[in-house]
């Protein structure tokens, strides 16, 4: 396996502050000089106390948050590409082909049925619509979403039902990198176990995963490495909590 395939994402010296424009442009530093890599076939977990910057790192990698400094280098179309300096069109191509993202909350769109929401990312990757819908149905059934809901838009679904549509969507599409922002937060134990299986299947297919999991059992079941974000934290609260974060180790392989 070439380096590009075995290490599809490199986060190098990444820093981020928020500027609060409505509060006299006060600058709030969050993380500084974040360094880690993702390896194919492994699940890395961002660890550290609340507010330390875990979601911000995930959002910088997905291009939702601007990165102030450093490089986020991703394998894309046979080359390594820096997402920090990439133009918006390239970022959209990377999202379609290289980096998948299961967010905590589903962004439901009016009138689009759950089955199509789940199938959509696969269709965008070039899969036939009928085949994508059929795979979406299989995945929604596996996640115990009642069939009577499949043709309804998920806007009125419960939190756990919406999360399962989101999970189906994210796990169906075939990205070499998959970001997971608390995908099990609203799920019961049975569905959590299914998501653990899905993550293990992605690992065995060689996907590089990066996730945030507050549930310790899920984390223990799937984590190959823990990236302790408190090492990079800049906020005053995080600094105070740093010493209390002994729970997190840099490696749990
Ligand atoms: N859009 C934003 N604007 C301003 N500040 C933000 C924004 N997003 C995050 N922050 C701040 O950045 C810091 C890190 O937040 P982040 O959500 O990344 O932490 P986290 O480790 O994921 O926390 P949690 O475990 O509670 O979800 C927090 O102090 C938060 O208030």
TrEMBL record:
Which keywords does this chain's UniProt record carry?
A: ATP-binding, Lyase, Nucleotide-binding
- What are the recorded GO MF terms, alphabetically? ATP binding; ATP hydrolysis activity; lyase activity
User: InterPro entries under this entry?
Assistant: AAA+_ATPase, ABC_transporter-like_ATP-bd, ABC_transporter-like_CS, CP_lyase_PhnL, P-loop_NTPase
For the ABC transporter domain, which residue ranges apply?
9-252
- State the SUPFAM superfamilies in the record: P-loop containing nucleoside triphosphate hydrolases
Instruction: One Pfam family, please name it.
Output: ABC_tran
- Tell me the protein family, please: Belongs to the ABC transporter superfamily.
Q: Could you identify this protein by its name?
A: Phosphonate C-P lyase system protein PhnL
What is the gene name?
A: phnL
